Amino acid sequence: MLVSCQGLELSEALLIVSKAISNKITNPILEGIKIVAEDDTLTLSATDTELSIEKKIKAQVKNEGETVVPGRFITEFVKKLTNSTIELEVNEKNQMEIRYEESHSVIQCYNPVEYPGFKKIDTKDYFGISKKDFKSCVSKTIFSVALDDSRPILKGVLFDIADGMVQTVALDGYRLALVKKKVTTDIKRSIVVPSRSLSELSKLIDDSDEIINVYVDQYTIMVDLGDTKVTSRLLEGDYINYKQIIPANFESFVTVNKGQFEEALERATLLSKTSNNNFVKFEIKENNICLTSNSELGNLRENLAVTLQGKDLIISFNPRYFLESLKAVSNEFVKICFNSASTPCVIVPTTNDEFLYLILPVRLIG
Predict the structure, then answer these.
(1) Superfamily for the 126-244 domain
(2) What is the pLDDT of residues 257-286, one digit of tens each?
(3) What is the pLDDT of residue 277?
(4) Is the fold of 2-114 the same as that of 246-359?
(5) What does the pLDDT look like over 140-182, one tens digit per residue?
(6) Is residue 56's pLDDT more than 90?
(7) Residue 298, phi-psi category: left (phi > 0), alpha (psi -120 to 50), beta (remainder)
(8) Rounded to whole angstroms, how far apart are CA atoms 330 and 347?
(9) What is the percent of the chain with per-residue pLDDT over 90, rounded to a whole number?
(10) How far are the Cα atoms of 60, 125, 161, 217 from residue 188, in angstroms, in the given order?
(11) Which end of the chain has a smaller Cβ tally under 10 Å, C or N?
């Protein structure tokens, strides 16, 4: 293989595909990035067998070929050559010589035959969604995925696609996040995508209205971004019936300024963090919500004007669950719906049903 390309383009491509290299390496070759030179294109790919990223760039290919280079090394090395034209040559010993300016470096490569192939998804099923909406689906739900391994299916985000809509859902046993967005194709699918794959994919997408196609089969999802393709295996198993968890009716409704409520909760959280009792009490009465937090360091009472419809209520929550939900949305006002001190509440918009956050209360003894 003999090829030359611009250092900046190569560096950017390496940075993108290197996101698929896991920190937990079980097979040394998975530390590598595969490079294939063919026609006038350099194709770079990396995988940890769950997430795979492929990126194509233009290059002058003098001799076609392929190899697998140490991923983190070459990514950091080329990052310092963005102003140079780089020539890459692989010899019969599978060593790559990197030539730039008047200098060169030689690194030993892996055997490309041993590298896992980039999975080709075999399906005609896809849904189209704007980049902006896809990012929103991820950012507004991913913080609610489970972090432990007791229920692996909950370490991903559910994409429930039907009737021209996608509902993305994440839950961890203490709270649930749900976001609805329109899609451009009418397929019916339910898939669960690992949170790490979604996190890395989201970083590659801008906030534009451009439509991207998301292809799905029984085991895999692939997002086509043109010169970049991202593939992830899906999590297998039955997801929790989230619709049964969400209460159908409520007895009390509080409308509150989101920003003011968020700031008050942040102040209350500072005290709750210093105590073994990591909760904040909500006392809702007569168009006022009083937040109280106590610890050995001191105590706090925050009063905030709200609009209350329904019964007064005293209820306690882990404030982090509230704060993460509030930070995910940009609405000026939100509505919080309650039933009792021992049942979940939900946070929803005041004007539509684009999102819903369900949070379990803290049950106080005595």
Answers:
(1) DNA Polymerase III, subunit A, domain 2 (3.10.150.10)
(2) 999 999 999 988 887 666 666 789 999 999
(3) 66
(4) yes
(5) 999 999 998 889 999 999 999 999 999 999 999 999 999 999 9
(6) yes
(7) left
(8) 13
(9) 84
(10) 44, 9, 5, 12
(11) C
Average model confidence (pLDDT) across the chain: 93
Cβ neighbours of 307 (radius 10 Å) = 12
Q: What fold characterizes domain 246-359?
A: DNA Polymerase III; Chain A, domain 2 (3.10.150)
If we measure between CA atoms, which residue out of 70, 84, 81, 76 comes closest to residue 32? 70
CATH class of 2-114: alpha beta
The amino acid occupying position 229 is K
Cα separation, 120 vs 112, whole angstroms? 18
pLDDT at 363 over 90: no
Percent of the chain exceeding pLDDT 70 equals 98
**Residue 91, CB-side half-sphere exposure with 13 Å CA sphere:** 8
Backbone angles phi, psi at 167, to 5 degrees: -110, 120
d(CA 288, CA 306): 5
CB atoms within 10 A of CB 252: 18
How far is the C-alpha of 220 from the C-alpha of 231, rounded, in Å?
Answer: 7
β-pairing verdict for 211-216 and 220-224: antiparallel
pLDDT of residue 275: 60
Output the six-digit token pair for 200: 């890395």
Query: Looking at the predicted structure, is the pLDDT value of residue 18 above 70?
Result: yes
CA angle 339/293/310 to nearest 5° reads: 25
Token couple for 91:
């010899």
